[in-house]
Each structure stands twice: as structure tokens, then as C-alpha cells.
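job 3f2a | input accepted
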Amino acid sequence: MRKGGLAQQHFNVGAMKETLIPLPSLEEQSDISRTLESLDARAGDEVQFREALVRLKSALMSVLLTGEVRVKPGEDAA
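job 3f2a | predicted structure (78 res):
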């Protein structure tokens, strides 16, 4: 007879409740928290920057496609 199924066949909730999980010191937890907050703030800044670029692109496309601004082929952007 072949057995299939779980890798941990005798691991149950009771055993999980008794399992000790090491935690970093409070100082290390604070360092980790500050690092994650910094990364989160940076990600927020990047999202805002991208949104500004999307708005700029939309505005440029609008003035170009409506003919409000004329561009001649071979003209240098200045």
C-alpha cells in the first residue's frame, strides 16, 4: 500500500501551539520597522512620480494631437 499526503503527517494545531518561534530583539524589531517604513515611503514617492509623468504625457499628447503645438519633422526639441 502506498502512502500519500502531507509531508508532516503528525503535525497538528496542538503541536503548533507548543512550537517556540524565536523573535528578534526589540532593538532589531525597531530597526526592521524603520527600514520597512522607509521603503514604504519611497514606494509612495515613486507612485506619485509615475502619476505625475502619466499626467504630463496626457497633457503633451493633448496639445500635440489637437494641433495646439505644431512640430515639424527634424526639428530639435529645445
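job 3f2a | The helical segments are 13-18, 26-65.
job 3f2a | closed
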